[in-house]
Specification:
The protein is of the alpha/beta class. Helix content is 44%, strand content 10%. Helix 3 packs across helix 10 and helix 6 runs antiparallel to helix 10.
Length: 263
């Protein structure tokens, strides 16, 4: 289960309305997000990569694997219906977010529970050896590592920031910092420090490890590769964004292990 993203910029209004249930997105906000997607090629590769991950996991564990998105198609209920047609009577709910947060992973599991199909949840898998080893290999020998993750409201944060800190310690990088990105406009406090303020304290070359995510999508391809890169270079920093796990075998190892623990 993952967040989901529209298939084209023309669907952006419907997509944002599905996310923003308390207030309708303005025309300006829709246009802003359309522009972001145009800058990364017109669409996010999230669904394509998620399907590759699902196929690799299916081969690894020799069980059927279905893809369901919370905010776009194929939806979580559509994935459950496909499983029902195949005769599946019990599901494992696997969130494609390693750290637990009620607003993300919790919401995925709630959506799955509403379908009425018996399921067992994977709550978090942030310390799975395959995932940690992937980031160890990426960060080894770097001058300075900036770990990033999606910010969320402080009032509903735990254990999310603790899980991120546990990951950073397990990865064991040298000089490093942890900062948050992709905050939405909101009157309530969100987790910090945010990437822009952290950048102002750094010097030299920074290697960015987006450990709050597992694949390329708009928060990586736009927020990091375009927006924050531009901010870093304006400060005289050398910016290097490290590759995402996507469907790397080490990530599939981590997913298979997380599923195996609840089967």
């Amino acid at each position: 289960m993952a967040h989901g993203s529209p298939d084209s910029v023309d669907q952006m209004g419907d997509y944002l309305r599905h996310i923003m249930t308390r207030r309708a997105p303005t025309a300006e906000l829709i246009a802003e997000f359309q522009d972001r997607y145009r800058q990364i090629g017109g669409r996010s590769p999230l669904l394509e990569i998620t399907r590759r991950q699902a196929e690799a996991l299916r081969k690894r564990i020799a069980l059927p694997v279905y893809v369901g998105m919370r905010h776009w198609t194929p939806t979580i209920p559509e994935a459950v219906e496909a499983a029902r047609r195949d005769g599946v009577e019990r599901l494992v709910g696997l969130p494609l977010a390693p750290q637990y947060a009620e607003v993300s992973v919790g919401a995925y599991h709630a959506e799955l529970a509403r379908t009425g199909v018996p399921s067992v949840p994977v709550r978090s898998w942030h310390l799975e050896p395959g995932l940690i080893e992937y980031w160890k290999r990426q960060t080894r020998g770097r001058e300075f590592v900036l770990f990033t993750a999606h910010s969320i409201p402080v009032q509903s944060a735990e254990p999310y920031p603790t899980h991120l800190q546990e990951m950073v310690r397990a990865i064991g990088a040298g000089p490093h910092a942890l900062a948050y990105q992709s905050r939405s406009p909101s009157p309530v406090p969100w987790l910090g420090p945010e990437v822009p303020e952290t950048l102002r304290e750094l010097r030299g070359k920074i290697s960015v490890a987006a450990i709050g995510f597992i694949c390329d999508h708009v928060e990586v391809l736009y927020d990091l590769d375009i927006l924050h890169r531009r901010q870093a270079e304006a400060l005289g920093l050398k910016w290097e964004r490290l590759p995402m796990p996507n469907d790397d075998p080490l990530l599939i190892d981590a997913l298979a292990s997380a599923v195996g623990k609840v089967l």
